[in-house]
Amino acid sequence: MKTILTNCLRKLIMFAIPGLFIMASCEEELIGTEPVNTPVNNFDYFWKTFDNHYGLFEVKQIDWNGLYNQYRKQVNDQMTDAELYVVLTNLIVQLNDNHVNLYPTNSELPVFPGGVIRYENEQLTILKVQKDYSLNVVKNYVPNLKQQTEFIRYGWLSDNIGYLNIQGTDSQKDTQRALDKILSELQNTQALIIDLRGHYGGMDAVSQLVAGYFSQETKLYMTSRKRNGPGHNDFTSVNEWYVRPAGAAPYTKPVYVLTSRFTQSAGETLSLALKELSQVTFIGDTTAGGLSDNPNFEMPNGWIFSVSVGDYRAADGTSYEGKGIPPDQFVRTDKEDLLAGKDPVLEQGIARARQ
Prior knowledge:
2-enoyl-CoA Hydratase, Chain A, domain 1, 7-stranded mixed β-sheet, 12 helices
């Protein structure tokens, strides 16, 4: 790229007058020609983008070249969009990655997966709609629930137990103002429940700030690195993430964190930070298992897809990608519970907080 850029600059300096032609030539050199929109080219572009950018081949022990040989022979230029969609989504499934999605933006074909992938023992389940948590049912237990920001709610349970519900990440400043207020009000509770079951993601730095309100010391909780070259092992240097005390007085009484299969992305990096704190216990279901950043790319046919480019790990080096973070105590709320107005996961958190 540096050589190409130098050549373009040299051309611009030497031939300033016919600039339109020079710029067009430089653009072709810098970004290349647009691939022709055919099923074969779309498949090859899709596969090659993952080959150049996906960060989890080694972690998940994926033979990406072998998968190319398996699926490329199913593609031809006479196939329909629907047929190509089937091949691409079948290929996606092999990655077992909740952060890999396909958006057929100019088609009536559905988004894939559009939910949480659970791929165990060679069996695939895609959870498109969350059926193990309902904020309306939570309100049966927290009738005084207050909404502080777009993503943060709080209130009081029985027996002087605090409740904090986080469903995403607001801005740093809004989060800091909200938690300063909320934890000053909840400071005298005997225990606190943090509900992350509807936390679908957001900004990792905000999750890092949230965890700091429960920490008395600086502790490593996560490392991350990102693909930066064509080789499957080409990565940036490791970035270390630390949870640091935040707020006037960190909450150090018992904390019970509720998670579900839909706790994902920045909800999972928040979970990694909270797991490093001695007063925290996790209750519920295993998290989604999708922690990496996932930028979007566009195929020649206009379809958009996302690629997990990072390798995020817990402080001890464990990768939870494709597996999820397990709770300390496994409890699951199902659809029938919610229809009955019951929340067994929250009930178990309350029972533990009363002890």
